[in-house]
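Q: Now give one record:
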Amino acid sequence: MKTKMALALALVVAIAALIYGYVKMNREQVADKKADQPISAASRVARSPMGETVVTLDQAAQKLIGLQTALLAAATLPQEMKAYGRALDPAPLVALVNDIASDRAALVASSKECQRQQDLYAGGRNTSAKALETADAAMKHDQIALATAGARLVAAWGKAVAEKPSLPAFVQSFARLERVLVRLDLPSGESLPGTPVGARLALPGTNPSIEANFLGRAATTDPQAQGEGFLFVATNAPAALTPGLSVVGFVQLPGEPLRGVVVPDAAIVRSSERSWVYAQTGDTTFARHEVVLDHPAAGGWFVTNALAPGARVVVTGAQMLLSEERKSQIKLED
């Protein structure tokens, strides 16, 4: 009897041990599976109902990274089209104008001599028909030379330049680089809806842009651009423009100006070959907006999309917000 009780007790103990071992092993397996799961970094990033990426950053975190914002004010910009061009070398123009001045002076002298010979011949004084013919031929030669030089000027530079009042003084200002003649060409297939009223010239590494006055249409087509060409005159103070310098131009058009805001350079972050800003939408929330940087402005960019006057954009710490977005996409594995 005692033996049977001992066996039963041993069996119960064995079964209990098996159950305990099974439960323990099952718990360990569950724990191992949990340990094998990727650990997601705590995310401060979400999507707004409009589909915008929103980063949440509490006041302490904002203070830690030194986050600062700037208020965007309303701004306007004349309607304009982007064009590409260069500052022109004035030497060929100076040479042509000097040729015209020389030919004109020669014509004045030969005209006087021809008139003198005519007067002498008509009065029967000391001259001959041959001398009169020679003087007349010299005058006609000078007339042709002057007309040819004028035609070359129009063909190369256009009527806007050729008919400019006080042309020699105008051209000499280019020779002294006090002013610069700039040619801007539209891309092939594009055209202006009206006559330009001026242009803004964006030079590499400079800000703000340089204002230029419209002079006239170019007389020739650029072999590379194959689009409409226009001539502008810019005052070169300080001397930032030199002959041959490539420029990006914004040809200004008549009509109602564009309305938008000027976004500071410091607010721009770049990702995936596009440009973005973070606009503050609450005390601790910042929404990322794509902006189109087609219009450089003093201290930043004139923007007509995504942002309205009165918006606040992050000017210090924007790159940190972008980094926070990227962190939310990283999964750490054990």
About this structure: Residues 34-42 have pLDDT under 50 and may be disordered. Helices lie at 2-36, 59-65, 91-122, 129-157, 159-162, 167-175, 318-328. The longest helix spans residues 2-36. The first strand starts at residue 39 and ends at 40.
